[in-house]
Design a protein that fits this description.
Layout (H helix, E strand, L loop, with lengths): L6 H23 L7 H14 L3 E2 L11 E5 L2 E3 L14 E10 L2 E10 L5 H18 L8 H13 L4 E2 L5 E3 L6 E5 L16 E4 L2 E3 L5 E3 L6 E3 L5 E3 L2 E6 L2 E4 L3 H9 L1
Helix pairs in contact: 1-2, 1-5, 3-4
The protein binds 2-amino-4-trifluoromethylsulfanyl-butyric acid and cobalt (II) ion.
């Protein structure tokens, strides 16, 4: 069942996703060598609650934290830990969700810890650009496959792997609504995108092989070949006039400049 949102509902989703963007900015300011992923999770939870929301991930299907923090070969759903200390040259994908006023926010950003290698920098930049290519297809009258194919074609043109086992999703009163939004697919296929649909587009792109394994902690997904992966996620409202991106990466990127 795909729920179309009213303009008022889209504004509540925007409020949530702006809070997610602000939380990711706050987390990003604290990312440096020596910090633990648990410390980042704690500050995010405090920040979210101080802004009148609750962390949407905490308790979701038993998930034990407010953020998913996935380092290097971890693709998504890494569990924050006091034992996980960030080091210079790491990349860290931070996925954050909020719930307030009856709606959910959900977005992700991959951060560099200090200086990273040129090839890892490129993986991040290409993954973010793949997200933008997919987002440009989120227009009423297009199909989910147009989004999927745009992400896939761009990422694969650099020789990167596109993870198949996880996908984007509809977003609304719950975190995972229909339709699923794969990061691979064929143009002109899949559900029709309609005015008022809100979807999360979230490419998970690997430097090496696309295969992933699910760790025994029940959550963490990592690359099978242990090469790095990047993950960026936007919440986007589909409009006749084009994509209306509810997430704001400029909040994150401006915070990183200062
Ligand atoms: N944000 C993830 C997604 O995009 C879900 C996080 S799983 C959770 O689907 F358990 F941590 F909530
Ligand atoms: Co998501």
């Amino acid at each position: 069942m795909i729920y179309l949102k009213t303009d008022e509902e889209i504004e509540l989703l925007r409020e949530n996703n702006l809070l997610v963007s602000m939380t990711l900015a706050e987390v990003g300011k604290h990312i440096r060598p020596g910090v633990t992923t648990k410390e980042l999770d704690t500050l995010a939870e405090t920040f979210i609650r101080d802004h009148g929301a609750v962390p949407a991930f905490l308790g979701y299907e038993g998930y034990p934290a407010s953020l998913c923090i996935s380092v290097n070969e971890q693709v998504v759903h890494g569990i924050p830990s006091a034992k996980c200390v960030l080091r210079e040259g790491d990349i860290v994908s931070v996925d954050c969700g909020t719930f307030m006023k009856g709606f959910v926010g959900d977005s992700a950003y991959t951060f560099a810890v200090g200086e990273v290698s040129a090839e890892v920098r490129q993986l991040c930049d290409v993954t973010k650009e793949a997200l933008h290519k997919g987002t440009a297809q989120a227009v009423a009258g297009h199909r989910v496959g147009d989004v999927s194919a745009a992400v896939q074609e761009y990422a694969e043109s650099f020789g990167y792997g596109v993870v198949r086992e996880l996908e984007g999703h509809g977003l609304g009163r719950s975190m995972h609504e229909d339709p699923g939004v794969p990061n691979y697919g064929a143009r002109g296929r899949g559900p029709l995108l309609k005015e008022g649909m809100v979807i999360c587009i979230e490419p998970m792109i690997t430097m090496g092989n696309k295969a992933v394994v699910f760790e025994r902690d029940g959550w963490t997904v990592r690359t099978r070949d242990r090469k790095p992966a990047a993950h960026y996620e936007f919440a986007v409202a589909v409009r006749r006039s084009g994509p209306d991106v509810l997430t704001d990466f400029s909040i994150i990127e401006n915070a990183l400049k200062n």
